Amino acid sequence: MIMKEWMEPIDSELPLAKAFNRIISDLELLRIMTNPRIFSDSTDKEAPFRMHNYYLTVLWERWLHGIFNRLVEWENTISTYFDEYNGSWEYYALSQRLEFIKEYGSDDEDDYNPDDTIKTTGITHEQLKYHTVFYDLYHDLLNAILNDAISVLNLHLDRTRFFQSSKPKSTIIPAMISPN
Question: Which is more confident, 12 or 1?
Fold first, then answer.
């Protein structure tokens, strides 16, 4: 693993990016102080503590960039929904369903006309429910939470494998959603 000494700011002028960049700037000193520079930095008695804190800065940096990028993607999806589909959930869902079947096909005979073209009329709400903008955003959110959980678990496993003597009293790991 390549150790990054400097944290990357979010490249945007949006107010959320500026707020996240202030947090990144505040974490920068911790990153610099805990970044192992020479072999002895990773073998002395303070190494587990420093490495734990270094990993936390890596997690926070990844989380701040990830959540910002995800929110921008969601804003683009919602803008497309209103701009291109006039806020019509049925129009959006029909279009997404059509694109999905074109790309991946379907095993359901009800998705095709007798001449093997994809049905575009007479589609029920039940057939559209997996192609709505809400479903797209909800599914993306669940994937993001799962991916973040897996990333955090992998980093934790890596850390414990290399620093088995390290047993920090508490761990603050960024979560995708806060209860408030």
Answer: 12
